[in-house]
Amino acid sequence: MMIWNEALRVVLDHALPLGPEMGPVCSSSEGAILAETIVADLDAPPFDKALMDGFALAGESPAFNEGWPLVNAVYAGDAQSGRLSQGHACPVATGARIPDGADRVVPFERTQKKDGILQVSDIPLSESFLARAGSDYRAGEVLLNSGTVLGPATTGALAAAARTAVRMIPIPIVAVISTGDELVEPNRKPMGSQIRNSNGPMLLSAIHQAGCLPKYLGIAPDCPNTLKNLILEGLTHPVLILSGGVSVGEKDFVRPMLETLGVKVLVHGIKLKPGRPFLFGITQKGGLVFGLPGNPTSALANFDLLIYPALLAMRGYTNPGPHFQTGIMGEALFANNNRPTLRPVGVKPEAGEFIVKDLGAKGSFELGVLTRSQGWLELPMGQWDIPKGSEVRILIPKLSAMVATLLQNA
Ligand code: AMP
Ligand code: MG
Predict the structure, then answer these.
(1) Which ligand sits nearest to residue 183's alpha carbon?
(2) For 360-407, how does the pLDDT look when each residue is reduced to its tens digit (9 = 90+)?
(3) What domains can be seen in the chain, in order of their start residue?
């Protein structure tokens, strides 16, 4: 049986980005990876501009002893004004195109007007409070490299360069199927030994958190025929995730049905607690298929450790993780693990450290504990007395994705 790092390697070897496509630059392209080099079409700023409300001055001393004679004001958006003569002042607003001949701007607060003539108490150094054309970047300069993660600033820069659409790596659709005869949808009251399908919505949320587009396909009972139809639909998407039915019970039809439908299973069973039954396969077209155990903690542990990085890799991230952090045990913990373990724990940031609190998780069936958990404590196999204050490895999925973003743009 593979250890989880080996399984991750196999998964990442197949988690390839979809071919780049032109896509609109909009709120939903946040987090997308740019797949072309962006060159500025204009100087920025495009003209010499005032950075303060005040007065553009020509030179460091006034034309007359009484002060600086004033010419007509220029506001942001006004057409180019004439040339400002030596020793004269021109009222300007922030963002206004300053007249030729001006070599500094004095903020309003440092001035006074007497009989229509400007007095300046503290004349700024040459080039103060103004930005010359092209001083931010020049036309023809590379603004953004291919591989950049789009975010607020880069989106603004694209707009400034007139790029309303760019080549980017498409966001994959990830299909989800819940399996199990015992499942009813959340809006139904479970009877007898039925339970509500909590994994479906949980996985949709996790997929969204990983920046992908979730698509829920429904519940498949433990019956090969319905399962077959749903899996066939799921296989039309770049990624399919199934929960439940992936162990070796008599009614666990997921693996045989996937194989019947041409999926090549590359991983089935890993040394991890919880989440041992983890299954990973690929379709002939290179689509990814994941089978997760039905227990919520197992399913989410598998997702955060193995699927989240795969989805980031498909989105074009070159360091998809998982990126573990160092945590500090806030209390002593005794662990006795017959497999490498991910334990749901509380994580509290305190004075620049992540303080880890054990939640007394008892088993993979618990959803309540998961709701109080902010991360996973990774523990190797064996018996461990972990004293309070010791350093441990923790995984916080969203933070791991943030590290992937920082590495991408570094
Ligand atoms: P399985 O992996 O199918 O053997 O299921 C393991 C456990 O997870 C069983 O107790 C199932 O009832 C439970 N389970 C399976 N699917 C779901 C689901 N979609 N939501 C919540 N619990 C589930
Ligand atoms: Mg089942």
Answers:
(1) 1
(2) 999 899 999 999 999 999 999 999 899 999 999 999 999 999 999 999
(3) 2-18+170-314 (3.40.980.10), 22-43+137-169 (3.90.105.10), 46-135 (2.170.190.11), 325-409 (2.40.340.10)
